[in-house]
C-alpha cells in the first residue's frame, strides 16, 4: 500500500517521547514488508541541520488568510520523510513548548501543518491511506472531509487516526474556530474531539487503554465520542523496535549481553555506578527514564521513594525532564540521599539506553499508560519492569509471583501500594534464582512490530472499504 504518516515526531529526527519511537517502528516494519511508506512532519529548528533535497512551494488558505511554506525531503533508514518548512511557525528550539509552557499559537501551527499536508497531497500521486498520529494531526480529519474530498488525489483516501495519548487534546477557546477553519464544540475547539468525529477509523496503542477510553475519567471528557465511534475504534499494541533496542547489539552500551550471558549487564551497571559516584556494593539498582509529568506517577513515586531510601539498602537512578515542581523534589532526593539516589535532569538518548541496561528493576508507576515502550525495552534488557497495572502496562507485564512473571505489578495509585510493590521487588532480588527466572522470562518476551503492522494493514484495508461503501 501507499501510506503517508502525518506526525509531529519521528525517531532519528525529533523526539520527546514514545510517539517518535512508535512512528518509526511502524513505518520501518511497513517498509520492510514492501509497502511504500513516507512520513511528513514540521521542520523544527533542530531540523535545519538535517540535509534535505528539493523544495516545493505550497500555498494554503486558512481562516481567510493565505500562508506559504516549503516542503523538503530527507530520509531516515530508507523511509522518505517530508519536512514542512515555515520559519515563523516551526523554527523554534522545541516542538510544542518553550520548556515551561505550550506555545500559545499551537492551534494555528498544527492546523496549518495539517492543511499544508493535504494541499501538498494534491500535488502527489494518490496515497491509499493517510495515517495521522495524536492531536497535532487531528484537524486533517476535518479538512479532508470538508475541503479536500473533491480533489481527485484525495477523493478515495481514508484518514486513519491513532491516539498515542488521549490526555493531550489541544483545547482552545471557540473564537479560534474561524481562524482555523475548524468547528467548535460546546465551548471549545477540541482537536482530539474533531478527529474522533471525522476520522475514517480510530485506534489507540493497546487494547487495555482502548477499553479505558470508553469511560470517564480516563476519556478526559470525551467518553461519549469514543462510544459513538465504538465500531470504528480499536486497540493495537505497539511493538518494540529490536533493531534499535537490543542489548546484544546496542552501540550505546559499554558492554553487550544477551539472556544466555549476562556478564555485559553487570559491566553496564558498574559503569553507571562509577559515572554517578555510587558504590558498587551489590545493592539492587532501580532506574527510571521518563518524561517527568503527572502521567508517569511522580506524585506517588516521590513519597514512596523517600520512605524506601530512608529505610532500605538500594540505589535509584532517575533520568528525565519535564515539570519543574517534580524536578525540584527529585533534586532534593539526591541531596538527602547522596549515597543512594541520583536524578539526572535532561533528555539524553544514549543515557536512556545505558540506564535500561544497568538497572535491576525499571520503575513505571504510571497513573495511566496508553501503551508504554520503556517497559518493553526493560523486558528485553532484563531490567524487570515494576509497573502500575493500567493500559498497555497491564497488557504487557505479567506480575510476580505468577509462574510466568516478567515483572512486578500493583494496582492502587497510592504511595502505599507502590511501596508494597517496591518491597516485593527487594524480596525477589534477595532470592537470586527466583529473580533470575523472572529475568529470563522477561528477556524472552517478543513484542516485535510484525504483529502490530499486520493489524495496521488490516485497519487500513477496512478504512478503504468504509470509504468506498459510503460513496
Ligand atoms: P511516553 O511516550 O509517554 O513518554 P513511552 O514509554 O512510550 O512513554 O516512551 C518514552 C520514550 O522516550 C522512550 O524511548 C524513552 O527512552 C524516551 N525518553 C523519555 N524521557 C527521556 C529522557 N529524559 N532522555 C532520553 N529518552 C527519554
Ligand atoms: C504516548 C504514550 C505512551 C505510548 C507512546 C507511543 O506518548 O504516553 O504510553 O507508548 O505514546 O505510542
Outline the structure in words.
The chain is an alpha/beta fold and 471 residues long. It folds into two domains: 2-239 and 450-470, Rossmann fold; 263-446, Rossmann fold. 39% of the residues lie in helices and 20% in strands. Helix 9 (263-275) packs across helix 12 (349-358) and helix 10 packs across helix 15 (415-430). 49% of the residues are buried. The model has no long low-confidence stretch (mean pLDDT 97). Bound molecules: adenosine-5'-diphosphate and alpha-D-glucopyranose. Residues 17-19, 22, 164-165, 205, 238, 369-373, 392 line the site of alpha-D-glucopyranose.
Give the DSSP E fraction (strand runs of 2 or more residues): 15-25%
Q: Level of helix content?
A: 25-40%
How many domain regions? 2
Overall structural class, as computed from helix and strand content, comes to alpha/beta
Query: How large, in whole angstroms, is the Cα Rg?
Result: 23 Å
In short:
The chain is of the alpha/beta class and 471 residues long. The protein has helices at 18-32, 87-90, 106-121, 139-148, 176-180, 191-198, 207-213, 223-228, 263-275, 298-311, 324-336, 349-358, 374-381, 391-396, 415-430, 432-443, 449-470; strands at 2-6, 36-42, 53-62, 65-76, 79-85, 129-133, 159-163, 171-172, 189-190, 201-204, 233-235, 285-292, 315-322, 341-345, 361-364, 384-388, 408-410.
Amino acid at each position: 500500500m501507499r501510506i503517508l504518516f502525518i506526525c509531529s515526531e519521528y525517531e532519528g529526527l525529533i523526539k520527546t517521547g514514545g510517539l517518535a519511537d512508535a512512528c518509526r517502528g511502524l513505518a520501518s516494519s511497513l517498509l520492510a514488508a514492501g509497502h511504500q511508506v513516507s512520513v511528513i512532519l514540521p521542520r523544527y529548528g533542530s531540523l535545519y541541520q538535517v540535509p534535505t533535497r528539493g523544495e516545493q512551494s505550497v500555498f494554503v488558505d486558512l481562516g481567510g488568510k493565505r500562508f506559504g511554506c516549503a516542503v523538503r525531503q530527507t530520509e531516515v533508514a530508507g523511509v522518505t520523510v517530508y519536512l514542512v518548512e515555515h520559519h515563523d511557525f516551526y523554527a523554534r528550539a522545541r516542538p510544542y513548548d518553550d520548556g515551561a509552557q505550550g506555545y500559545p499559537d499551537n492551534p494555528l501551527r498544527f492546523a496549518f501543518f495539517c492543511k499544508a499536508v493535504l494541499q501538498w497531497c494534491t500535488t502527489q500521486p494518490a496515497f491509499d491511506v493517510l495515517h495521522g498520529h495524536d492531536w497535532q494531526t487531528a484537524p486533517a480529519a476535518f479538512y479532508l472531509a470538508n475541503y479536500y474530498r473533491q480533489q481527485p488525489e484525495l477523493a478515495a483516501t481514508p484518514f486513519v487516526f491513532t491516539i498515542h495519548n488521549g490526555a493531550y487534546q489541544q483545547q482552545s477557546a471557540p473564537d479560534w474556530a474561524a481562524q482555523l477553519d475548524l468547528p467548535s464544540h460546546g465551548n471549545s475547539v477540541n482537536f482530539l474531539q474533531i478527529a474522533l468525529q471525522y476520522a475514517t477509523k480510530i485506534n489507540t496503542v493497546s487494547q487495555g487503554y482502548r477499553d479505558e477510553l470508553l469511560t470517564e475519567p480516563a476519556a478526559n471528557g470525551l467518553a461519549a465520542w469514543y462510544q459513538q465511534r465504538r465500531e470504528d475504534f480499536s486497540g493495537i499494541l505497539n511493538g518494540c523496535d529490536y533493531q534499535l533496542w537490543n542489548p546484544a547489539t546496542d552501540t550505546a552500551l559499554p558492554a553487550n549481553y544477551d539472556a544466555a550471558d549476562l556478564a555485559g549487564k553487570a559491566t553496564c551497571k558498574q559503569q553507571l555506578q562509577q559515572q554517578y559516584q555510587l558504590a558498587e556494593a551489590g545493592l539492587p539498582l532501580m532506574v527510571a527514564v521518563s518524561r517527568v509529568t503527572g502521567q508517569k506517577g511522580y506524585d506517588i513515586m516521590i513519597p514512596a521513594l523517600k520512605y524506601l531510601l530512608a529505610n532500605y539498602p538500594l540505589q535509584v537512578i532517575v533520568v528525565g525532564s519535564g515539570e519543574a515542581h517534580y524536578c525540584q523534589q527529585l533534586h532534593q532526593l539526591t541531596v538527602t540521599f547522596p549515597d543512594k539516589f541520583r536524578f539526572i535532569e535532561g533528555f539524553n538518548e544514549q543515557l536512556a539506553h545505558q540506564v535500561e541496561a544497568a538497572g535491576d528493576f525499571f520503575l513505571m508507576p504510571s497513573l495511566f499508560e496508553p501503551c508504554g515502550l520503556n517497559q518493553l525495552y526493560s523486558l528485553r534488557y532484563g531490567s524487570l519492569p515494576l509497573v502500575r497495572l493500567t493500559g498497555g502496562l497491564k497488557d504487557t507485564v505479567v506480575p510476580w509471583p505468577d509462574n510466568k512473571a516478567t515483572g512486578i505489578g500493583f494496582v492502587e495509585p497510592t504511595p502505599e501500594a507502590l511501596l508494597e510493590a517496591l518491597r516485593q521487588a527487594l524480596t525477589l532480588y534477595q532470592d537470586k534464582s527466583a529473580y533470575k527466572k523472572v529475568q529470563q522470562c522477561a528477556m524472552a518476551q517478543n513484542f516485535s512490530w510484525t504483529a502490530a503492522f499486520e493489524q495496521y494493514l488490516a485497519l487500513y484495508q477496512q478504512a478503504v472499504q468504509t470509504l468506498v461503501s459510503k460513496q
